[in-house]
Specification:
The complex is a heterodimer.
Chain A: H1 3-34, H2 41-55, H3 61-84, H4 92-114, E1 132-134, E2 137-139, H5 141-163, H6 165-175, H7 177-182, H8 187-213, H9 219-234, H10 239-259, H11 265-279, H12 288-293
Antiparallel strand pairs in A: 1-2
Helix pairs in contact in A: 1-5, 1-6, 1-8, 1-9, 1-10, 2-3, 2-4, 2-8, 2-9, 3-8, 5-6, 5-8, 9-10, 9-11, 10-11
Chain B: E1 2-11, E2 14-24, E3 29-33, H1 40-48, E4 55-60, E5 63-64, H2 70-76, E6 78-81, H3 93-100, H4 102-105, H5 112-122, H6 124-128, H7 139-152, E7 157-161, H8 169-184, E8 188-193, H9 196-202, E9 205-210, E10 213-219, H10 220-225, H11 227-233
Classes of the chains: A mainly alpha, B alpha/beta.
Chain lengths: 296, 247
Amino acid sequence: MTTELFTQYLFAGITYGIIYAVVAIGFNIIYNTTGIINFAQGEFVMLGGMISISLNPLMPLPLAIGLAVMLTTLIGALIEMVFIRWLVHPSVLRMIIITIGISILIREVALHIWGEGVRSLPYFYGNEISSIDILGAHVSPQVLWVVGVCSIIVTLLSLFFKFTPLGQEMLACSANRLAATLCGINAKNMVTLSFMLSAGIGALAGCVVSPITYTQYDCGTGLAIKGFTVAVLGGLGNSMAAVAAGLLLGILEAFSIHIFPLAFQDAISISILLLILFIRPHGLFGSKEAAELKEF
Amino acid sequence: MLKIKNLEAGYGKLRVLKRISMHVDPGEIVTIIGANGAGKTTLLYTISGIIKPTDGEINLFSTSLDKIKPEKIVSMGCSLVPEGRQVFATMSVKENLILGSYVQSKKKGYDKEGELQNIYNIFPVLKERKSQLAGTLSGGEQQMLAMGRALMAKPKLIMMDEPSTGLAPLIVKDIFQIIFRLRQAGNTVLLVEQNAKAALGIADRGYVLETGKIILQGPAQDLLDNNDVQRAYLGRDVDSQGASCEV
């Protein structure tokens, strides 16, 4: 393999990897505060992309993206308030089935609004054929946008959880919900916030990847599976591990094209998911003791 | 300050507390002693609003706690130090303490550094460990952190659930001394303990809880002298000492 080809694969891997990581972080935020996997996470990504595409003809691109992110955040809050908030001591299984239901619902609504057509946002800079030379590889400027925006999301999120009172309160709820309540923190509001936060970052990721991956009413499902694989691979609930696991999966997929036909790309992530669930269900970076104590 | 009348509570169909009536006056240390499964923790959880009572009344500062959420009860000035410490293990000691002041931080003129300093004065070890993760502290230090965190909310009534569980006797002594000093500083304490001797030693009054019912109550000294209490909770064989007849 030549250096150019290597760099080319590497960049493709990093691009997809970081998208998976952002979806996985969305899973983790909600998992941490509620203990459930929100299977509608992929739909947030789709909604972000679709809404921004619809708004784009009416206003400048940054505004359209901003508005799409805000709208999706509100949808996230709405979903939590309508479907999750009023449940009294729901079982994990019940909540998971509910999120699967929500994801189907959103997909069908999207099908009615936007149809089956494949859409995309325009490239943020340049167009489909413009490229930048990095170490001999041709990289689309949009790739740099994706990597840049996603890295900023990850950095800002970790700063948010580390340094802001609100972030600390959410973290407290995930660390120990009973103790957080006894500190006077309203745990239910924190759950709503966590839905808003993961909807928002999912939507933003959906906007920046739209020019490369295109957006369709059902594109969330695939992303959700990849994101879930990455979240499990890293160890559920651990966002920094999700970034590492995301890059690992993205790069593995990219390089696999060199050996296997393209059609096998998705099979690889599914195989990894199965392998991890069989061999290390607590993930690459997760602690076994902690995993054994969890309900799910 | 706290008045409970005919309180009933439990989990689902299981009735744990059976017509409990008790009260705590300002400035007192009141202890509730009882064996495992007597309902001590359930009682504290019910007062904190974590468990909803099925019958009866709880009045805190002359306000009925009926349908009041647990968060609200904390901001009214009643904090619980839960059993098993329940610190935020993955966060630092300082972060734990600051989270404890959540209800205070919403108020005007709140002085975070000053409040932290107060807690560090009571528990100097927490200052030494302030950047350490709470999960890496020893049991005694975690207990102090849990108490410090509850005190950060500046409660008028602080409830403690088995602060001595799993601690070495020397540390237990420390903890009880701190509770005693808290009262001297003007706090009111409701202390739940299995360690009846230590708890009655610092308390003004006590209640004995058995299978969800209060079977005895009175000044702490009277309970310490009571033969039934001695036999059941202080592990003393009263008969062999030949002092059992005159009750």
